[in-house]
Amino acid sequence: MSDARITAGRRLAADLNSVRKERGVSVKDIMDATRLAENVVEELEKTGLFSNPMFNRVYLRSIFRSYAGVVGLDEENVLAALEEALDGRYAGSLRQDDAGEAPLDDSASPAEEAAPETGEVDTQETAPATAPVPPVSAIPDEAQSSGRVVLLPNMRGMWAAGIAALVLLALIVVALTWVLTRDDAVETGNETGATVPSTESLEQAAPVDRPGIMLPDTLQIGVKAVTEPLDPIRITLDLEQEFLVVTATDTVVLPVQPSVRFPLWVEMDSTVAFRFLETARFEREVENALFTVEGYELPADWTDEAGIYTVNRDSVLALIRRTSDAP
Known about the structure:
Number of helices: 9
Helix content: 25-40%
Number of domains: 3
Mean pLDDT: 75
Oligomer: single chain
Largest sheet: 4 strands, antiparallel
Number of strands: 10
């Protein structure tokens, strides 16, 4: 990472801090309007968030755009200044555009490191500046984690879908074989004059013993952005685990604590997968998401009056039984 980018990020952060104070906007005003954590806002005004390598270019654009709206700066000017800083050539254009003042020198900025650029995300709520934040990631609201979280290409979901397709194909073959065998038996019985029992009498004489559906100890749930990016959806799980997020430039792992709500940014047509024991809850953006458990698509009407989409083991089991007509 170049010294020019670090210096440019500090200068831009100092300009933002100066403009905010001149306009009488408090840090709490920024937090209330953008739902950013206090330490994220503070770090934004120290280093421009360049010191966290997981705040990529799209994250930064989204955060800077929201910040500009609250402070009353022109969004295009702020984004242009951000691009200059990322390229290591910001020289105070934001202050000049805002008040016609000369650029600030390097001493007005704190000493922090800058961040690389990747991914794309909208601003709502992000992770503490002291912990890595993946391009499509989740950081607990109540407890900061030093680990990392990831967006899956949902390989396990793809495997599950493939296995489900093979099972379905096998069932179709068995059903066709049974129908053809039954038809042959009926024709043979008619030719020999033998009495072929009806389907009803066969079922009464030999009832089918269908075993009940058994779910695994932990269930895999997938969340896919189907109508627009999820920016972010908020998730609460009951199982401690690690997420693996894979992007074009990064592979990051972050442990997730049970019963701690965290935001998760998901790009359009991307899917994130994770596990739960009994219950998983989702808030915000649920109307733009498609949920699947163990390859079964979940209905959209599981959202309650509070806007919380709840998935639990019993409701999943009931859905699978209805879908497969199993006991």
